[in-house]
Design brief:
Length: 398
């Protein structure tokens, strides 16, 4: 392996040292840091503004069942494994941080407006039943009995009763507090490159001019995972940014009791209620590179589609609009585990599932950092291995 010449040049001064440096302070990076610190490792998280990226914009659905597709059973396995970990994860996080993450387990109600949509939902329910996943078919009247604010034209639906959701902004606050309590050092600076010595990752360079020396480096920079300098070709995963726009509204608590979703104008729309009366509308998916503008067209489509599902949504107060970048991969599955470069661990490419997959990702990566997962390991080791993209290089334009 040929190390780039820049890595042989005089390095900037070492400003921090740790067993582990986590590059990226979103829900994935912070969860890994918290779990690694709990295993006795010294940890530095480097991020200019932890929790402010895709985590800040996310709706927080923990919905592997209602999001299942016929071609993504491996992703479903991951989601179910992580969903099972969320109750204990939320309780422990709340106890260590003092922050309530608004973990709700009321299920997702997917609804249909016409015969074709209803047929598609029925086929999905059959598929879920074959996988022994709970899915209850409902008539239009039964849907409206569960959610009186639904549009009168709803023909029927499917209730995925075990789906859940959290408030990602509270989760980020809780993870920051819990990580600091565990002794994690937060370095509010951007990682610009990985330091490679003797064909091994030994730390990171910071935009401010310093470096973090570390025994292991965890790459958890989301959509920016292909933006680091200093690595040999083919080490970085082929992660691309997928733009999503989100709108937050404020109504009376209890406006909705379930996460509500449906196919509107050919795209999936959802409404996620919070305990305090907030309702999150989402989410667009746009292949726009690193464009994070909130656009009039994007907001119009969110409101238009949400109004088809729940007409009363237009009476609520708009409290926030935000666009962010999710990290997508060619096969829509995250890249998690040791990279081809010794000393480097990848934890990126979670796309829409970062919040859902945080407990499983953190548990697996922390165990790897502490000496390896005992036994055969969880499905993440098999499904998300970086080796499947060996030799492929991410090409981004910034």
């Amino acid at each position: 392996m040929n190390v780039p010449h820049a890595n042989r040049a005089a390095a900037p001064p070492v400003t921090h040292r740790a067993d582990v440096c986590v590059a990226g302070g979103g829900v994935i990076g912070l969860s890994i840091a918290w779990r690694a610190a709990a295993l006795g490792l010294s940890v530095v998280v480097a991020d200019p503004s932890p929790g402010s990226g895709a985590t800040h914009a996310a709706a927080g659905m923990l919905a592997p069942v209602s999001e299942v597709t016929y071609t993504e059973e491996p992703l479903l396995r991951l989601g179910l494994a992580s969903l099972a970990r969320w109750p204990a994860f939320a309780v422990e996080l709340g106890e260590e941080s003092g922050v309530d993450v608004d973990h709700r387990t009321d299920g997702t109600l997917a609804v249909a407006f016409d015969a074709d949509d209803l047929t598609a939902l029925g086929e999905l329910a059959d598929f879920m039943a074959k996988l022994s996943l709970p899915a209850q078919r409902l008539t239009g009247r039964e849907c409206r009995r569960l959610e009186p604010m639904l549009a009168p034209g709803v023909r029927g639906g499917v209730l995925a009763a075990e789906d859940a959701w959290v408030d990602p902004r509270r989760v980020a606050d809780a993870l920051l507090a819990a990580a600091v309590r565990r002794g994690v050092t937060l370095v509010r600076d951007r990682v610009t490159g990985v330091i490679v010595e003797s064909d091994t990752a030994t730390g990171v360079r910071l935009a401010g001019g310093g470096t973090v020396a570390a025994g292991r480096v965890v790459l958890a920079t989301g959509a920016w995972s292909g933006a680091l300098d200093g690595l040999p070709p083919g080490v970085l995963p082929p992660v691309r940014p997928v733009k999503g726009q989100i709108m937050r509204l404020r109504g009376a608590p209890g406006f909705l009791g379930h996460c509500v979703r449906g196919v509107v104008h050919g795209s999936s729309a959802y409404l996620v209620p919070r305990g305090d009366g907030e309702v999150v509308l989402g989410a667009s998916q746009e292949e726009m590179g690193f464009d994070t503008r909130v656009t009039a067209g994007g907001l119009y489509e969110l409101l238009r589609d949400a109004r088809e599902l729940v007409p009363g949504i237009t009476e609520l107060e708009v409290t926030d609009t935000v666009a962010s970048l999710r990290p997508g991969t060619p096969d829509n599955i995250p890249v998690i585990g040791p990279a081809s470069l010794p000393g480097l661990v990848l934890a990126t490419g979670h796309h829409r599932g970062g919040v859902l997959l945080a407990p499983l990702t953190a548990e697996y990566v922390a165990a790897e950092l502490a000496g390896g997962w005992p036994g055969d390991g969880p499905p993440v080791a098999e499904i998300c291995s970086p080796a499947r993209f060996a030799g492929r290089t991410a090409h981004h334009h910034y």
